[in-house]
Amino acid sequence: MTDIRSAAMTAKAWPYEEARKLLKRWPDGKPNGEPIVFETGYGPSGLPHIGTFNEVLRTTFVRQAYTELTGGAPSRLIAFSDDMDGLRKVPDNIANAEVLAANLGKPLSRIPDPFGTHESFAHHNNAMLRRFLDQFGFDYEFLSATDCYTSGRFDEVLRNVLRNFNGVMDVMLPTLREERRKTYSPILPVSPDTGIVLQVPVTVVDAEAGIIAFEEDGKRIEQSALGGMAKLQWKVDWAARWVALGVDYEMSGKDLTDSVVQSSKIARVLGGRPPEGFNYEMFLDEKGEKISKSKGNGLSLEEWLRYGSEDSLAFYIFREPKKAKSLHLGVIPRAVDDYWQFRTRYPDQPVEQQLGNPVHHIHAGKVPAQGLPLTYGLLLNLASLPGVADKETAWRFVQRYAPGTSPDSSPELDTLIGLAVNYARDFVAPALQRRPPTAEEAAALRDLDSQLADLPDDADADTIQNIVFEIGKTHFGKDNLRGWFGTLYETLLGSSQGPRMGSFIALYGIANSRALIAEALAAAG
Predict the structure, then answer these.
(1) Separation in Å, CA 88 to CA 103, 105, 107, 166
(2) Where do the H-state alpha helices sit in 299-406?
(3) What sign has the CA pseudo-torsion 376, 380, 381, 387?
(4) Where does this protein hold ATP (predicted)?
(5) Are 175 and 209 in contact (CB under 8 A)?
(6) What does the pLDDT read at residue 37?
(7) Is 265 labelled a binding residue?
(8) In the chain, N or C: fewer CB atoms in 10 Å?
(9) pLDDT category, 161, cuts 50, 70, 90?
């Protein structure tokens, strides 16, 4: 542990760089041994998605790094649900949408659950969030804005906003359009008549008592802002939450950069200290456009997990958080294989390199030792071929290639085979189109077939790969081996790219591979 702490102090991996901000924030630890507070926020008007996973996971990486840097200093991760927000629009694809439409403007926690299973719409979605976080084993504490407001937990920070009303307005008004300035209020009262969260100007009647005044339908109303009778406007709400909960660290997307600036100013007005953190870059679709839930151009968590492992997604999320990255189905195979490459290297790396290895952070320093006998890419090539469209068939090939493996003894391999079969069946196989070889290519293929015929059925991948190389040199020359491998991929597999051919032939079997060559030669005429 001492070696890890020492190496972590200078490690360049971004979670350590972030965690060291907390060491500077509290050089002697937080007063009275209080835990460092990490937070992630969640808007429960929709269901948890890949962005939710992304933010909680990245925050967890920083929390783990802080634990290593301090040798186990206490910390907490709060998953905060903004369920006092007024519902602004009816989400897409919600059953019984008329229930939501009839309650627009009300706090999410005071709208009936359209699914009919929970106390409110927010309670339903909060339950989904907690189930989601539990599914992936996150260590967190759940907090609800509704509970914090109605229980009185936020009463003192609400009074603080009222006491510093002008200071908060001085921060916010310069950031607003002139028309918006006329109606802006940092406090949003809940209508005593309709229960709607009102966007109306508010005056402070008595800050210490928490009394505010506003107009609704031409009538002046005085009421308490405490106990859930009002909520704070976004940015003010964020800042107040930081102050009330003692938040030390919170990251957010680049689209909230300005919000972080304004909320940090407001936190200082309230006498608090803004948390450490950073703004991560957004994910892009295949066209390089920002992913939008409303556009539906993103990749769902369910889609990734149908074709790639959870560890591969964590690996993809870990790398370069401040760089915009494409997030679409095409990145999954590479992410899976890259994860396994880094995991394979980990045991033999010195501790300094281990701390920079993504798998160290994905597995919280407890990296499983078991490796894989073949790559996901190779499995995709196998599962894309005729007659290998199911997991059981694929396993028969794998067990011949890697004797001693089985679904029971190699559960991660078993999972990976199933994922590869899904991906190959849905995306690879339908796009394959084998072309007939040219006369020159056919001669090389006949030579390969002849030499394969002389090999035993259990010839290893390296032996086969050497034969493939020598035939390529003979027929295409040393400088055009790329052309030879392209020929093999295009005529045998129907793809412009492919695997290490020695490994593929060993996996698919010499007899089956010769059958592919025979089909290609027949197509040449």
Answers:
(1) 10, 6, 10, 27
(2) 301-307, 310-318, 332-345, 351-354, 358-362, 376-383, 391-401
(3) positive
(4) 293
(5) no
(6) 98
(7) no
(8) C
(9) very high
pLDDT at 1 over 60: no
d(CA 525, CA 522): 5
**What integer is the mean pLDDT of 448-457?**
95
DSSP state of 112: -
Write down the residue that tokens 């996971």 correspond to.
57
Query: Greater confidence, 94 or 332?
Result: 332
Q: What DSSP character marks residue 40?
A: E
SS3 state of residue 78: strand
Contact 35, 76 (CB under 8 A): yes
What is the rounded CA–CA span in Å between residue 231 and residue 250?
A: 21
The DSSP bridge partners found for residue 78 are 39, 141
On average, the pLDDT of the chain sits at 93
Residue 235: C-alpha distances to residues 148, 240, 276, 370 (Å): 17, 8, 16, 47
Give the three-state DSSP class for 43: coil
By CB atoms closer than 10 A (0-12, 13-18, 19+), residue 163 is middle
Query: Backbone phi, then psi, for 353, in 5-degree steps?
Result: -75, -35
Q: Residue 524: pLDDT above 90? A: no
DSSP 152-209: TTTHHHHHHHHHTHHHHHHHHGGGS-HHHHTT--SEEEBPTTT--B-----EEEETTT
**Cα–Cα distance, 161 to 273 (Å, whole number):** 15
Upper half-sphere CA count for residue 352 (Cβ side, 13 Å): 3
DSSP state of 407: T
Structure tokens at 403: 């004797």
The dihedral through the CA atoms of 287, 288, 290, 293 has a sign that is positive
Half-sphere exposure (CA, 13 Å, Cβ side) for 144? 21
